[in-house]
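Handout, tutorial session.
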Amino acid sequence: MNRQSLKQTTVPDAPGVYSFIGPHKEILYIGRATSLRSRVRSYFAPDITEKRGLAIAKMVEEAKVVEWEKTDSVLESLILEANL
């Protein structure tokens, strides 16, 4: 997934869990956020390598899809992340 395809996607401004999915439909990363929109967009910033490191930048580059599941609260997102 790239910055352009993210712009065409409506990520909710709500708590939840997100996953970066690789080319073979494998889960590369699972995280949680109080604002899915802000967190997911932060991975596509031009200075991602400086802010998050080379490993995260490579993971974002390799990912083909970003999936998310909105929750009703931050506590629910914490529980969902732990279960995933």
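The second record follows below. Compare its token runs with those of the first.
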Amino acid sequence: MTLNRFNVHDLPAMPWKNGGGMTRELVCQPPDADMDSFDWRVSIAHIASDGPFSSFSGVDRIITLLSGGGVHLLGDDGQVDHWLDTPLVPFTFAGEAAIQARLLAGDCHDFNVMARRDVCNASLQVVRSACDWPLAPQGLFMAVRGSWTLQGSSIEVLLPQQCLWWSDADTDWRLCPQRPDAALLALKITN
């Protein structure tokens, strides 16, 4: 099993191709894949200005507001019209959709998941209380608020803004928050 732990703020921030923000890549599988060949990818984006989202044909996307005023997502064909203005509420859309983003009240930070739909499926939940996380061959946890104890093949503790991702082994987890207002982003990747 491959198990990786890291602090989000230790990852390099890279500018978007269109200059509208920055991104920190949390994980990209397979490891040497580029933006045209990944199976799944997770990042945190800093959206600093209005503009188009990049198109990713054949990719399902999940976006979740982490902080800031949020963004209005509007598809050119009208099929997407979503106000991403409440933190920790995931929104799913097709990566090939032509979407314009308009900031609502200043810049924002968003958690982004992309999964190539002919290869794998991504499921994202916000966990706020102790639970058993189902068996999955790949996935990622990010502590957003409070500390979390993760009991799987090993026992791991995540502090806020720390992540853990695993691959190459079916693993189930017991997720335990250390305070009542804790929040954890829990991503499951299945084939």
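Points raised in discussion: The mean pLDDT is 93.
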